[in-house]
């Protein structure tokens, strides 16, 4: 089965080892993708553990599950960002259990996903993109769009997120929501946003509920 984060790999080769705790993401993008997969599969304990310790104190698995109730996350798109790609390679030495990157430059569609929950639980997620990039080697910025269904309608969450390394592991720090977040209309005959090369109506549209 193709991974929920829309990479070119299967779930068991991509995000599942992270959700199970067998490996840890070796980049901010891997963490973002795995968090999206966690939302898609209701692994809220993983979501909680991928916040910095300070933020974990104000959240619970129950809070995250309740905030995500009713949303079906189905596709992720990672946008190229200079800040994310220019992070010093020395950060690799800070991350334990490094694994090969899941990014595939030929895949336009990807996620972290992180979504309605981030908008509701993260005080730093504001409505306008005024995020100040962190430039230290153990920090990175990732911009993504996550797609989800709620009450049979399609929504997108477009966020620019800050990630940082804490205790040798990447953590989601905070994010800024873009103005195009919210309910959207997408043609049923258009290529599916997940990058499957199928028409939307024959692919992810069937996950609407």
CATH architecture label: Roll
Q: What average pLDDT do the residues reach?
A: 81
Which structural class is indicated by helix and strand composition?
A: alpha+beta
**Could you give a short account of the major beta sheet?**
5 strands, antiparallel
Radius of gyration: 16 Å
Low-confidence stretches: 83-130
Q: What's the shape?
A: globular
How many β-strand stretches?
Answer: 5
Count of discrete alpha- or pi-helical segments spanning 4 or more residues: 7
Supply the number of structural domains. 1
Strand content: 15-25%
Task: Using the coordinates shown, work out and report the CATH topology.
Answer: Nuclear Transport Factor 2, Chain: A
Determine the oligomeric state from the structure: single chain
Order of helices and strands: HHHHHEHHEEEE
CATH class: Alpha Beta
Through-space gap between termini: 21 Å
What is the percent of helical residues? 10-25%
SSE layout:
Blueprint: H1 16-20, H2 28-40, H3 44-49, H4 53-56, H5 61-68, E1 72-79, H6 82-85, H7 116-121, E2 139-150, E3 153-166, E4 169-177, E5 182-184
Antiparallel strand pairs: 1-2, 2-3, 3-4, 3-5
How would you describe what is shown here?
The protein contains 7 helices and 5 strands, in the order H-H-H-H-H-E-H-H-E-E-E-E. A hairpin with a 2-residue loop joins strand 2 and strand 3. It starts with 15 loop residues before the first helix and ends in a 25-residue tail after the last strand. Strands 1, 2, 3, 4 and 5 form a 5-stranded antiparallel sheet that branches. The longest helix has 13 residues. It has a single domain, classed as Nuclear Transport Factor 2, Chain: A. It is globular and about 45 Å long. Helix content is 22%, strand content 22%. By secondary structure, it is an alpha+beta fold.
